User: Fold these one by one.
Assistant:
Number 1:
Amino acid sequence: MPGMIVVGLQWGDEGKGKVVDWLAESADIVVRFQGGQNAGHTIVVGDETFTLSLLPSGILRHGTVAVLGSGVVIDPESLIHEIRHLRDRGFRVDNTNFMIAENASLVLGAHKHLDIFREGPSDSKSEIGTTLMGIGPAYEDKVGRRAVRVCDMANPDRLDTVVKGLVRHHNKIRQGYNGLDIQAKSVHGDLLDYAPHLLPFVRPVWKFLRESLHQNKTVLFEGAQGTFLDVEHGTYPYVTSSSTVSGSALCGSGVGPKDIESVVGVCKAYQTRVGNGPFPTEQLNSTGGKLRRVGVEIGTITSRPRRCGWLDAVMVRQACAISGVEGVVITKLDVLDGFDELKVCSGYRLMGQYLDHLPSCTDAQSKVVPLYETFPGWTQPTAGVRKKSNLPKEARAYIDRIEELIECPVTLLSTSPERNDIIRYSDGPPS
Ligand code: GDP
Ligand code: IMO
Ligand code: MG
């Protein structure tokens, strides 16, 4: 089997980590292709919880190779810390089960400073509400053709030239924010210190993937963030700075479209968002509070409370179309246990007109009025259920209608954070 891409269909935190870890049991390779340490992917194994930011979720599975593709932006300090942390917990991370693309770009301290300069102090209302991890500035330097890349760490002379160019650029910007200058010598020195920890993992990833796919190895492409945080297709400018949709998996790892067999999307049974920006079905009331409390909707990376609301089937349908999703995994169904009634947004009204999609303009996105379908809740819990036949009939009716609204089969349902609490629902990928 060639590749399978897994992407988020909302604003991130859909449960991609759990789904990729579950699928990785039968995959040879798991590749992250975009984003950086702004991701927080949670995997629960028994009474142990793992939160992965840069390391692909396959790293927890014995026999699976975890790969960081060229589209990922890598903070060397974070990555070294994450590797050390996982080793301390008894996991093997060496150059037989982990590799880094030599052409991936780095996130440096200067990028984090710039993120913080732009967003303001963490206790003030910031513009985008980023994770302050330097992701946007790092991608800017990448497309600006002045990034330091992983391969530069192997060549001190080249590193010196690139670092000097980047520092010159950053110091000009920093002056505008009254920031202190950074010194090229110190950035260069830090990177040379990190190099021996990372260079053993560095490979031409595109070549490894080509050879592996030719040998019929199974490759999972693990998306970070979600469709509406995509820099083009998301709720711009309230987005991240990478492309989070399935098309990005090809470019961000170095494979072609024929290597992809299926695309799987992940969404929650409701909707959440961390950070600022439009959110048509947001519930700023006791319903939102209950979803946050029961769903433990606290940001994995920044510990910010997540904004909560009803499932927006218009957005999920749009996300499925943009990524060519053929099977949807719905997570956190159990969080809806005990609600008297549930709502799902099936269309919008904007200035008296019906809309079947989320418009692109921020103003319009903020003004659309959701049109809801209402469903009876269920009393029998779904938490921990592993068989479709054991689901309450109201829960099945809820999922069946979602399948119609999003125009895509719901192939898997997740009913708890635990690794194995997953139900096969309808036919389709992942199969
Ligand atoms: P990701 O970024 O898409 O990997 O998602 P996160 O890990 O940031 O957030 C998802 C949260 O929901 C994590 O705390 C998971 O452990 C948890 N989770 C995943 N699936 C389920 C589920 O089916 N039910 C419940 N209650 N929690 C889940
Ligand atoms: P995972 O992979 C949820 C959000 C931030 C902010 C916006 C831009 O765990 O689903 P950035 O730091 O990327 O410049 O911030 O994107 N954001 C996420 N929200 N899950 C994520 O990742 C996110 N990564 C970034 O909160 O609104
Ligand atoms: Mg997350």
Number 2:
Amino acid sequence: MTHPAVIDELMTLVDPGKVLTDAASLEAYGKDWTQHYPPAPSAIVLPKTIEQVQAIVAWANRHRIALVPSGGRTGLSAGAVAANGEVVVAFDYMNQVLAFNAFDRTVVCQPGVVTRQLQQFAEEHGLYYPVDFASSGSSQIGGNIGTNAGGIKVIRYGMTRNWVAGLKVVTGKGELLELNKDLIKNATGYDLRQLFIGAEGTLGFVVEATMRLDRAPRNLTAMVLGTPDFDSIMPVLHAFQGRLDLTAFEFFSDKALAKVMGRGDVPPPFDTDCPFYALLEFEASNEDVANEALATFEHCVEQGWVLDGVMSQSETQLKNLWKLREYISETISHWTPYKNDISVTVSKVPAFLREIDAIVAEHYPDYEVVWYGHIGDGNLHLNILKPDDMSKDAFFASCARVNKWVFEIVERYNGSISAEHGVGMTKRDYLAYSRSPEEIACMKAIKAVFDPNGIMNPGKIFAPE
Ligand code: MLT
Ligand code: ZN
């Protein structure tokens, strides 16, 4: 634990009352949405300016104190968890949209801007911020950049990385760097901006971000389709992608749907029970597009790939269909799930999922397994639910034993052990299944350049040495 005199010094660097050490704050700010590690930070500090962030970093280097950057704390890999006496740096008071350029379609955000705040800002200006996920109401832009957040529209718009025009960062050395200066074209050597995106706060703090916006989509329309088996989902994806520009293509299993139905606040898509469901979305910008979608649906039914389906006819129906997918994560959190967030190239998904499913069925015969994810971009979420009568620690330990087999398959398929949630602490011991020893050595060398004293989020991405 950090010495009280050192915390007193920290208090002089920020506004009065912006260092918190009470038990409730330590508990709230020391964790994210993972339930693996008990939070144990020494203090929480809430800077208001870039200069204050630099002063905090200088203080941390002087006293060799570990800092954990904290956004909306919606992460699912313990990337923002402070379990070892670190000081949490939270951006609740750096949460303003600072500037908007309608011509360049860019918005300058402080790191604490909530994702939905940016989405709404874009909407108010007739534009669109397309990175979206269920936690957009609380996740923050700084955290999204730290994990290169993905979500439900990646098939069309890509990850957060695609929407970052420029960054201001404070490195682990305390230097302020202005990266890429919001340019579209910039061929002046290494693009350091990209290094900070997805770095999980291990290189420094994002203290300002210029985000790009897009044109607003026209008449977004969703379809939910029930399929007779998992293998039918891929030809459905192929058929729709051949005829329409999809903005999303998600899937979930009957078990995932049953959990959401159990809430009682979402209407079922249709009466037919199906083992798997696909949710796709497109811009029905004119009648021809909607007709094309219906014709593709009929083709899929004729082929036996689809058993039943529904297409949204209003904004309310669109939202209700999305709830079937977006509510899954929050709903199953009640069962303390062990979460996997794996990916392969899209064409490999059927064979990959079949192998993983067989391993999981063999090793987790007594656990409920819930599949869902962003199948259109190759990202599958495998969630193992904790039996009610089992302790959390025993459950997580038994799941971790199976990881070896799951991740060996991931490695064989050239996949990723973390598609969008990040490595954090929950996946750090498995990094070598996705990255070579040479790559890991390069990553560590890069960290040493920006953070020579190792004060920035230690123990995240890489296991402590
Ligand atoms: C999702 O796709 O719903 C999110 O990544 C959260 C989760 O995987 O539970
Ligand atoms: Zn996801």
